[in-house]
Amino acid sequence: MIRQNAGIWAGIVLLLFSVFVFWQSFSLHYRTAFGPGPGMFPRWLSGILIVLSLVYIWQSARKEIFRLSEILPKGEGLINILSVLLSVFVFMVIVNRTGFMIAGTAMLFIVLFRHFKWYAALIIAFVVTLILFLIFKPLLGVPIPVNQFGW
Amino acid sequence: MDSLMQLLGGFETALSWWNLFYCLVGVTVGMLVGVLPGLGPATATALLIPITFGMDPISAIIMLAGIYYGGMYGGTITSVLINTPGEAASVITCLDGYPLAKQGRAGVALGVAAIGSFIGGTISIIGLAFIGPALAEWALKFGPPEFFALMLFGLVMVVGLMGRSLIRGLIAAFLGLILSLVGLDPVSGAQRFTFGQPFLLEGFDIVTITMGLFGISEILLGMESMYKTGELPKVKGLLPRRDEWKPTMKAIGRGTALGFVSGLVPGTSSTIPALLSYSLERQIAKDKSRFGKGAIEGVAGPETANNAYCGSALIPLFTLGIPSSPTIAILLGAFIMHGLTPGPTLFMENPNFVWAIIASMFIGNLILLIMNLPLAGMWAKVALVPPKLLYPIILLITVLGAYSINNSLWDVGVMYAFGIIGYFMKKLDIPMAPVVLTIVLSKLMETSLTQSMTIFEGNMFAFFQRPISATLIVLSIVVLIFSVFAEVKNKKSALAGDIEM
Amino acid sequence: MKKKKTLTGFIVVMLVLFLAACGSSGSSGSSGSSDSGSGGNSGTSASTSSNSGSQASQQSEAKDTASKYPEREIQLIVPFAAGGASDSISRIIAKGMEEHLQKPVVVVNKTGGTGGVGLSFVEASANDGYIMGYTPVELTMHKPLGLSELEPSKFEFIAQVTKIPAAVTVPIDAPYNTLEEFVEYARNNKLTVGSSGAGSIWHVAAAAFGQAAGFEFNHVPFDGAAPAVTALMGGHIDVVMVSVGEVKSGIEAGKLKLLGVMSNERDPNFPDVPTLKEAGYDVEIAGWGGFILPKGTPQDIIDILAEAIEKAAQSDEFKEFTQKQGMLMEYKKGAEFKEFAESQFQFFSELIPTMGLK
């Protein structure tokens, strides 16, 4: 039952996070001459968060509001989400080498191709990327990542 | 009256064909840029300054002011339609604007926002024109202690946005508070939680976090349940229902007052009047539960406050040469680049200039209204684009927007991470607005606290010896006790249905 | 099908807008720029009104001679936000340089880490002369402050363009009217001094003055000089030691008075105000700004850029700008600038540790 309870997991994550912050805050001065030093706020805030996460865990255990199985995406939904995450990741990795046009097209293609015929997905990806490129660069003058050739 | 004559003179200049054109271009461009998530009015203004180089100063500033206003409205559009705020202040608009859109009433939300923005903006400009200088004097009384008290008050207001569970809301709020600590400590210069990363030296950028928490998570959620969406609700209507007009107008009135006063205080940002207005509307509403589900006042009030803020924020700029917010600072930079130094001498040395700008702001506001009322319907139709096409496009725009904040992929990465966090937060019903709002407030708050303590040389009671800060602090304590009490009372009655703790 | 129609319509609208923009904007390439990969090639981009596709390949860049440089646009990295002092200065100089070089000079803001992010980017970039940077005094303060390992020896110096001396400013109704009275008062009463941040140049200026004149103070940091000046005007703090430009409008409004400036000569805008040196305190602290290149850039490229910057710095536009801002135009070329930067680095390396900032 505990394994299924998403609230408990989230609470544990929060707990770990706040403990980490709390621990880190000890390497900072607590007070300065007149008032709070850099360490004071982190220590207090993380301390309170520790308490809150404990309460949250307890509360989730008692009421079992969210079952993990309901929360995590599965099936079609899961693959959709993964495609989004993958696409952005790919974009980030290749954009500085290949430039915006290629990276953008690739990114959109990854997300689109499950829902359209592959050639349609490719065309849409390319056209949308192109339009955005044109709007941002010549029209607005926003610097965007480009490759050697300027696109 | 002297000012009136000068104002009319200003109108004469502003209504020249060229200047009208520039104003129109400014507003349009501003709006288009504001619509792109991640590019808020600050970035839009900064990016477009170079375009104005060749123009004569008056026209240049007219265009920039138009961009500023347009950008603000553009942020509203994305908040309502796709729950992706363009900047921190728009977060508040998402809270009730997006639910309205889901009910097919996006047009109404946008329409109300446009009307409110116009009224708020215009009234605040009138204030700027006629009583500006006098007010600026008063604003100077806000020193660090007053500022701290104001932020404290704002934080207390956030409690009102906790959502259904106090615990989860508090977790969100404290999470935001801790996140804001990352970076250089303003007082001692010590680096906190930076782990040697130069990008973290200035802390997390509020815009990237917001875009991730709200925008990316929304895309993830949407993609996940895409195959489940049935009929999208029909988009209809542009104006509120008859019975909604009165509360809407009242909300607009209150929003104007709040926004105007907030703008006078240097150092605030547009988030504060929006937050205060939303909390106010919610507190005084007869049926609080409507908020968060599409309460019209929740859109009308903050949007108005936000635009009223813009107008009065120019008062410290014009009269004392002090920028009230980062966007204004950029406008200040633009002024300077065109050879004009804002300050008390500006009114004396270049009266035509100042009045022409003020006049063009009226016009800008008007243009915004005229353009947007019909366009609101069109914008709302964006929701009708099939999700499998819409979400990817928004995704690319958002990624690009995040990149353009600082020309770096770091921001994209941060947004990505927060998108995943936001996804889980939404699933676990942990409210996200408190995270963003507390980050904004606490950054300002901690600085003011330390500054005040230094000035007072450690004497905490000095806060209560100054009229403004004392009032605000006492008010905060009162409101805090009141809200917590009310929440607990609500829970007690809800316990009967055994919904949750 | 609906999708196709909306898409086509969208494309048409965008094309129209694009053409309109091409026609009307015509600004000489100050829009549009490119980002380059980490330490890799510098990219090219099409400028708005033309479609120049001149793409120098990497080999020919290395063999670039003075007669051919620059062949394409140059990026000017500004490590601070748009609209600020660094940004404004850079944009005006960039414009002046464009006129001289006949090629676009595009400003790219890379903010963060008190200038660290932008400066690090320049340090790691190719030294072919197509990426240059603007640096304020903060470069020489970074390492002493523990912010990064950046220091002058990691860069080539093209030219300095501005000097921004610190000034001692107090509210108009303060009980002291001269530097001597001020120091006397400060020695006996701990005053609150506002600055633009812990470890900022204005904080350092105050510390230097305090050390030389023998008084201590309570430092109140603000998020930039403007809020500090605001607090001063409201009477919440006692004194600020920021630049003249930042207090100018306050003085003209009759709310502040200037007691002294920390430079060698009196400020032309305020000829009645003595320098600290005249009053007997050997303190000269100023912010400054200049342009740098990655280490190893060929000397002839540096010279070409220095000349372009000199022309730009002497333009009327820049003169007017600096005058209005209360900055001083000060041009130091290449080697002189480098020497100056090194000496500043030494100075701060000695002073900052004594300020007890950790």
Automatic annotation (TrEMBL), chain A:
Transmembrane segments: 7-26, 41-58, 79-112, 118-136
Pfam name, any one: TctB
All copies of domain DUF1468, residue ranges: 9-145
InterPro entries noted in UniProt: DUF1468
UniProt keyword annotations, A-Z: Membrane, Transmembrane, Transmembrane helix
Protein name according to UniProt: Tripartite tricarboxylate transporter TctB family
Gene source species: Thermobacillus composti (strain DSM 18247 / JCM 13945 / KWC4)
Automatic annotation (TrEMBL), chain C:
CDD domains, alphabetized: PBP2_Bug_TTT
Compositional bias per record (Low complexity), positions renumbered to this chain: 27-36, 43-60
Region (Disordered): 27-68
Secretion signal span: 1-29
Entry keywords, A to Z: Signal
InterPro entries: BUG, Bug_dom1
Cross-referenced Pfam families: TctC (PF03401)
Source domain of life: Bacteria
PANTHER family: BLR1237 PROTEIN (PTHR42928:SF5), TRICARBOXYLATE-BINDING PROTEIN (PTHR42928)
Family statement drawn from the similarity comment of this UniProt entry: Belongs to the UPF0065 (bug) family.
Protein name: Tripartite tricarboxylate transporter substrate binding protein
Species the sequence originates in: Thermobacillus composti (strain DSM 18247 / JCM 13945 / KWC4)
